[in-house]
Amino acid sequence: MPDKSELSHRRWCYCGALVAMLALVVSIWPFASVSAETPITLKVEAFRGLPGLHHSALSRFLAAHMADARLADWRFEPAQPGSAVPNRVEWTFKLNPYAGGEVRQFVREPVAEQGFGVHRPVTIEVRLYLNGEYQTLVERQAMIQGGPNDSEFAAAVASVTESLLGPSGAYRAIDTGQHPASRAR
User: Fold this and answer.
1) Does domain 35-174 match CATH 1.25.40?
2) For residue range 46-81, what is the model confidence (pLDDT) as tens digits?
3) CB-facing half-sphere around the CA of 9: CA atoms within 13 A
4) 93 - beta bridge partners?
5) Residue 53 burial (C-beta neighbours within 10 Å; 0-12, 13-18, 19+)
6) In the chain, what are the domain boundaries?
7) DSSP three-state, residue 146
8) Which residues pair with 129 in a beta bridge?
């Protein structure tokens, strides 16, 4: 049987090893990948809709094409109108004037079916909120035609999503390794 001093020495060694392991875990924890955790579900809200996409269809369109960015840490669902959601992205669209100025059209086209009819410059702003707190914003200029079949608009949505949430996106630039305590699923 070991004597008292040897037992005391072993306890200190075990405690020292435990402290060293905890220090290692704490030092690498902020740099660990989020992908091992359950993906965060973000509700997608659209403000200031676009011609060619009804407001409710716009949120569905955005959620579907945000998924095109293929980000494993995030899931996207259209938000219900008027719901207060803590984990969300808010999209705002502003129609920009053409470079040569606005030209009025006297022939009215069916906006709901054809979008703009021509490529139109648009400013896209996307804000990220986690646990009800604003995190960051991404703004992008795009040329889109509008409507539910606009492949350029779909590509712009995926690109903006990557710029916001991707591995080198705006959120990761401010991310300190602390992730939301409550995750919506």
Assistant:
1) no
2) 986 777 777 778 999 999 999 999 999 999 999 987
3) 5
4) 124
5) buried
6) 1-32, 35-174
7) coil
8) 88, 134
* Residues 6+ away with beta carbon under 8 Å from 121: 95, 96, 97, 98, 99, 141, 142, 143
Question: Residue 167: CA atoms inside 13 Å, Cβ hemisphere, count?
Answer: 6
Sheet with 74-78: strands ordered across: 74-78, 40-47, 88-95, 120-130, 133-144
- Quote the pLDDT of residue 26: 45
The tokens of 106 are what? 């006297």
Amino acid, single-letter form, for residue 120: R
pTM: 0.66
Q: What percent of the chain has pLDDT over 90?
A: 38
Burial class of residue 42, CB neighbours in 10 A (0-12, 13-18, 19+): buried
Q: What are the C-alpha distances in Å from 67 to residues 77, 95, 133, 164, 165?
A: 9, 24, 23, 13, 11
* Angle at 100 (CA atoms; ends 117, 96), nearest 5 degrees: 60
pLDDT of residue 123: 92
Residue 38 DSSP label: P
